[in-house]
Amino acid sequence: MAFTTDTRKRLVTAALVAPAAIWLFVFLVLPFMAIVVFSVGERAPEGGYQTAFTFAQFANLGSRAAAFRNTMLIAPLGAFLCLIVAYPVAYYLAIKASPRYRLLLVSLVVVPFWTSLLVRTYAWMYILGSRGIPNLLSMIGIEDVRLLNTPGAVLLGIVYGYLPLMIMPIYVSLEKLDRRLLEASADLGARPVSTFFGVTLPLSLPGVMTGVALVTILLLGEYLIPQLLGGGKVFFIGNALVDLFLQSRNWPFGSAIAVTLVAVVVIVLSVAMRIAFKISGSRQVDLV
């Protein structure tokens, strides 16, 4: 049986896409479907899941309002602080750094990923703890300074842990920037600041939105940093899920929170894509 050229192309495409599609369906779609089923069930007397059909779990989301509030406030703020720190670094790497050392500098950005986030967060626990910075401050007469177990400590850990994920999309966007546009702007008499806000920043917005969306989405499910640097006083949705699934064993309520979190992520991603598309005009914007 002979196949046309178009048919062969479709078969090849299907063969290439099939492994990834099957993987996503088995390990992403099916587990999420199970979570959705759990979310409309009830907690069994001994804990876990009991078959039912009720939306009472969603009606009870208000009992975890603190976790939602902390997550919705600190996660976007952490992403914004990452952006403030990351953009100058990415700009230097892509525009100002010598090509001879650029690869080395970019490698240094990703070096922290070679070490477990758990180890790096424990290091910050020591730095911010009583034997770290507060101890040094007490030596110069500044007493009773508490840095650990505060929202500030959580934000610091977020910026440190997620900074490379913000730098790299912005760097890629700036690295692709046509240098002739910058030269043309200078030749037309524009000052460096005007060139930055009129040319560089608008053209790098796809990378900026990619980094902001990526970091924000990951932060919405963050567990480790609030647990260690927040000391249980800065409670995220991820901490609530661990408590409900592993300690309280209230799987339906935990599933309802998880479904709500996924809905929030979808909304955040959709809004980010819409904003990026409007700002960037007809330029292609890839956030995932």
UniProtKB/TrEMBL annotation:
Stretches that traverse the bilayer: 12-38, 73-94, 103-127, 153-174, 195-220, 253-277
Record's keyword annotation contains Metal-binding: no
SUPFAM superfamilies cross-referenced by the UniProt entry: MetI-like
Secreted as UniProt keyword: no
InterPro entries listed in its UniProt record: MetI-like (IPR000515), MetI-like_sf (IPR035906)
Domain of life: Bacteria
Protein name: ABC transporter permease
The species this protein was found in: Ciceribacter ferrooxidans
